[in-house]
C-alpha cells in the first residue's frame, strides 16, 4: 500500500452491512481520496493504528442507497394533486395533466432549484446516488436553448452542488403516441429526431457526465428510434432505461401499433441483448411471457408512486422467479424514502399474495434482501456496480447510518435491527450520510 | 364566563384544523383545566388580551390523533418475524405462534414496560388517545392473579404515566375455535366464562376506567357469550369492538359453525342495534351484504398491519358507500404512525381500484377526510366523541403540531399542506403534542 493510500480515517459503528454481510462492530478505513482501503471488526489486529478514529456511535452503518428512477421536478407538485376542483386528477392520465402544467412553467433557474431541493432531500434520506430520468430538454414550445443541453446541465449542477452522485438518464421523447404528434405541452420534451438526441448525448458524454439512455416509453418513441438507441447504448456500454407497462392503456396502444406487448417490442429492438444492460421501470402490467423476456435484466419498482398514481402492484415475486433483478426508485418524489419503497415492495406482495415473507433471500433474511434492492441492484441498473451500492475495499465510502437511539429501535435485538428498519421503518432515523468519504449530512 | 374558566394560555399556529375546518393563523384559548374556551383567527377582536400567548411557530396545529386499535405488547416483536429459520412466520397463523410465544413470557412488570414504550411512541407520533385491545389477563396457564385485573391495571398505569388517554377495550376470550378449547398458550387470555369476564369489567368500571367491551372474535367466543356482552354493552352505553374477517380461514370456520358470515353472527347477536356502537376491526374479507349490515357502525382499518400479516386491503370505498365509518389503528405496533395508516388506507384503495382520489370528502378534499378517519371517527368508535378527535370550544386541548420547517414541506402552498402530510408524509414531522392542555412532547 503506497503512502498516498494510507487511511486517514477509521469509521466505527455498532453494527453494519459490509461486503453485503451483516457485521457487529465493523470498522472501515477510508483514505484521503474517500475510498475504503481496509475493513474489519473492532478489536481485530488489522485495524490501522495510525488513523483518526471516528466512532459513529450507536448506529447501523449501511451502504448508501441508490435511487434508480427519479423525476426531480415532480417534487414541485407534492401534495397538489389530491383534490377535485378545476382539475380532477382522479386517474393517472388526468394527474399527468397537472404534472405537464408544472413542467411547462419551469425555467432553467427553477429546474435547478427544484432539482437541488429534491436531491437534498434524497441525501438526507440516505440516498447517495440517483438516476435522474430527465425529459425536459427545450424551451416551452420545443425551441432548443442556445446550449441544447442547458436543462440537463442544470440537473448536473444541482447534483454537484448538493454532493450526490448522478447518472443522467437522458430521455428521448418524439411523439404523444403512434397516432398523435407531440402535444403542445410535450414539445419541450422532444428532440427533432434520434440523431439530434444522440448528438446531445455525445455532448454530455464529452463533458464527462455519467449518462444512461432513456427512450421515454414505447408510446413516445417509434421502433426505429428505439433500435438506434439500443445500438448506441450497446456500442458505448451505457445503461438503457425506459418506462414500461405502468398503465393498461399503454399496453393497449402498443398492441394496436405493434401487435405485441411493450416488453416484446423492447426485446425485439435489442434491449435485452446485453446482460443486465436494460432497466424496465414499473413493469406492473406484464405477463409471464414478458417477465421471462426480462430475465437477466432489471425492473425498477417505485411502490409509493405506483400506489399514488393507481398503477398497481409490481409483481416482484414473479419477476424474481423469472430471473429479473428488482431495483427501487422514488419516481415522482412525493415521497423520498427508499426505506419505505423497499418496505412497500414487500408489503405490496404480501397484499397481492395474502402471505408473508415474499422477498426473503436464500438465507431467509428479508432485511438484507430489501437493502440489496435499494443499493446493489440499483447501482447495477445504473451501470455503477463497481462504484455504488456496496461497502467494501476499493470502493468509495458512500454510506449512511441509522440511529439506534431512535425510540423506534429500543429493545430490538441486534439480529432483527435491519429487518425492523426495512420492514417497519422509514428514513426518519437516518443520522449521517457520506459520499466519497465526505460527510454530507 | 366565570373567573375560573378564564383562559390561561392562547396558542397560535401558522395553520390548523379547528372544528373540522382548515384555518390559516388560528388561535385557541386554553384554560387552566386544559379545555379550549375560545377559538379564532390571529388579528380578530375576540382573542383574549389577558392570556399568555404561546406562538407555536411555523406549524400546522391539528387535533390529537385517535388510535382505535392497538395491541401494545406486540411492540416487543417489531422486526422479529420476517425471517425463515427455526420458525417460519410466512402466514398470519404461523406469525401468530411467534406472537403467542412473546405473550406467554410477559410478566406484569414487562407488560407495563412494553406498553409504556408503545404508548410513548404513540404520543411522539401525535396520538393522544388509544383504544388498547387488551387480551392478556391471567398468569401463564390461566390462573388469575390475586387481583384478576392485575394486567389490565398495568396497561392503565402505563397510559397514566405516559400521559395518553386510554380506552381499555377489555377482551373476552374463551376458546381456540368452535372445535377446540383454548390452546395452552391462549389460556392466559381466557376467563372462566362471560360472567367472570363481566365481573372484571364491573370492577374496572368501578375504578373509573374508560372501558369498551371486546369479544376477541367470532372464533374465540361462542354465540351466547357474544349476546351477553352486547346486552351489557347496550345497557351501559359502552363501545363494542371485535376482530372481524381479517383472514379467510376465520370466515370459513364461522360458516362451518354458524352457517353465516362473522358479520351476520354479530348483527344477529345485537351488535348493530345501537347506532355507531360497534367497531369491526379489519373487515377485509367482507361481502357487500356484510358491508350493508355494518352500515351506521365503524370499521377500524389497520393498513400497515394488514399488509404485514398478508390480510389484504380494507375495502374502504365500498364500506363508505354502505354507510360505514372507517377509523384507524396501529394494531401490531410494528409501525406506530397514524399518518401512514391514513395514507395507506387511501393508497391501498388506489392499488385495488387502479384509480386516484378514492376517499375524498364531499368538498373534494382528501387530507381532511383522511385526518377525520385518524381523529373524529376513531374517537366516535371509542365512545369518546364528546372529548377527543376534534379541536373546539368545550373540548380538551388534545392536539399535535407538524413542523412546516421540515424540508418535506418546503415550497408547498398552504392549501396543499394537509394533503401533502396525509398523502405523502409520515409522523416524523410531529413537533408538539398536548393532552388536556399539558405538553407531552
Key descriptive features of the protein:
32% helix, 21% strand, alpha/beta, 441 residues, 18 strands, 14 helices, 4-stranded mixed β-sheet, homodimer, 6-stranded mixed β-sheet
What does this structure look like?
- The structure is a homodimer.
- In chain A, helix 3 (about 150-160) links the parallel strand 9 and strand 10 (about 165-170).
- The first copy, chain A, starts with 6 loop residues before the first strand and ends with a strand.
- The relative contact order of chain A is 0.15.
- Chain A is α/β, with parallel strands linked by helices and about 450 residues long.
- The model of chain A has no long low-confidence stretch (mean pLDDT about 95).
- The first copy, chain A, has 14 helices and 18 strands.
- In chain A, the strands form four sheets. Chain A has a six-stranded mixed beta sheet with strand order 3-2-7-16-17-18, with no helix packed on it.
- Chains A and B meet through helix 1, helix 2, helix 9, helix 11 and helix 14 of A and helix 1, helix 2, helix 9, helix 11 and helix 14 of B.
